[in-house]
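Is this the right way to post structure tokens for a design question? Let me know if I should format differently. Anyway, here goes:
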């Protein structure tokens, strides 16, 4: 099923069929893993459309088409990690360009922007994107991109994507959303007017914690062509087996996301009532400061919860060491539940001062709620909290 054929179908049908159809002489129902680095040519320059596997690979092509369909985008390109996707996108800019970025972002994204890309004289302003007028005011003649992570990692702040996209379009600034935390099942930024979307597919998109990868999606054919050129010229492409695995993961994205959310709601409500828990941050709770906005721009609240425990590092460390079903590990979005300490783990590269301002404190814990039986997960948290 190609991208235009897939338009009339629902999300689950697209997740299973988009970009894919019985393949080759055997009519193999699953797209094969084209484990090849190159393709035969009849005469120099006369080839099937595939000439070298950094440039294109049929397994990758099918995967990219599936992702484009899920985000309601015209084009998608796959990369070897979420950060490789972001890095390649920044190759569209030149030194002297200015980027506005949400203040709270994944620690690795912050490190890439603040420590690496500034070496090439890209200039960044990190700010709270809630105040659209303030963002508009921060736009300078050299501002080229607005980087929106929503919900943010790890504080789960939510920004008004539609309003930000409208404002930046009027100012001729490219708006990009990192949609990793929601997946297209719960949030589709292109439909809200943004120019492009990126994902770390390492998380919900693949969903099984066995692949590192990223994707870039846009409706802008000129931008896509530039990124396609860079995908080949920079070369951070995914391996064919990884493309196959992600396509397999995508087939259950809609089922998984529903279950992540169902479990997360129950766990958030359990944590809210627990005497050792200070504050629970989950977009689905009415107490979340942007709960109304979440309901407006997302079709669900996802499976990520951050919370503070009463006490400090000693208490959070005890909790993190004691859970059994919640594995202490970086990453998120897999079928299995994970727990982590943002200040020491995923956001260690964010300076202490910024962390303090954002609320990434020593007693902050982030959980990625998996799709195990929710009562078992609650029991695990209950036991670990009683050990604190
Ligand atoms: O790990 P990688 O596939 O390169 O993706 C980076 C990335 C980009 N954007 C967001 C919102 C992310 O959360 C990540 C990776 N995050 C983790 C590893 C984490 O535990 O938060």
């Amino acid at each position: 099923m190609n991208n235009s054929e897939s338009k009339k179908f629902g999300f689950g049908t697209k997740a299973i069929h988009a970009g894919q159809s019985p393949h080759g002489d055997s009519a193999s129902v699953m797209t094969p893993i084209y484990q090849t680095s190159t393709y035969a040519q009849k005469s120099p320059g006369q080839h099937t459309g595939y000439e070298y596997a950094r440039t294109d690979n049929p397994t990758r092509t099918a995967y990219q088409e599936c992702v484009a369909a899920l985000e309601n985008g015209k084009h998608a390109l796959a990369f070897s990690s979420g950060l490789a996707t972001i890095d390649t996108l920044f190759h569209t800019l030149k030194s002297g360009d200015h980027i506005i970025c949400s203040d709270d972002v994944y620690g690795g994204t912050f490190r890439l922007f603040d420590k690496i890309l500034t070496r090439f004289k890209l200039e960044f302003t990190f700010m709270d994107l809630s105040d659209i007028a303030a963002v508009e005011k921060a736009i300078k003649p050299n501002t080229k991109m607005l980087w929106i992570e929503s919900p943010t990692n790890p504080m789960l702040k939510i920004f008004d994507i539609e309003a930000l996209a409208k404002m930046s379009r009027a100012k001729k600034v490219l708006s990009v959303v990192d949609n990793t935390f929601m997946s297209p099942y719960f949030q589709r930024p292109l439909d809200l007017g943004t120019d492009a979307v990126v994902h770390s597919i390492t998380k919900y998109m693949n969903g099984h914690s066995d692949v590192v990868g990223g994707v870039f999606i846009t409706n802008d054919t000129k931008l896509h062509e530039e990124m396609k050129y860079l995908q080949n010229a920079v070369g951070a492409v995914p391996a064919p087996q990884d493309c196959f695995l992600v396509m397999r993961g995508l087939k259950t994205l809609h089922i998984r996301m529903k279950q992540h959310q169902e479990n997360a709601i129950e766990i958030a409500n359990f944590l809210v009532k627990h005497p050792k828990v200070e504050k629970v941050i989950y977009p689905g709770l009415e107490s979340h400061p942007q709960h109304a906005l979440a309901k407006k721009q997302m079709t669900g609240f996802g499976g990520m919860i951050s919370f503070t425990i009463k006490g400090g590092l000693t208490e959070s460390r005890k909790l993190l060491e004691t859970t059994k079903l919640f594995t202490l590990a970086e990453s998120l979005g897999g079928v299995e539940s994970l727990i982590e300490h943002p200040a020491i783990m995923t956001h260690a590269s964010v300076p202490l001062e910024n962390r303090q301002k954002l609320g990434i404190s020593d007693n902050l814990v982030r959980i990625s709620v998996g799709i195990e039986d929710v009562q078992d997960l609650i029991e695990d948290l209950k036991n670990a909290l009683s050990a604190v």
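Format looks fine. Someone answered above. Worth noting: The two ends are 53 Å apart (CA to CA). Residues 81-83, 106, 108-109, 149, 153, 178, 180, 200, 202, 212, 214, 330-332, 346 surround P1T (CB under 6 Å).
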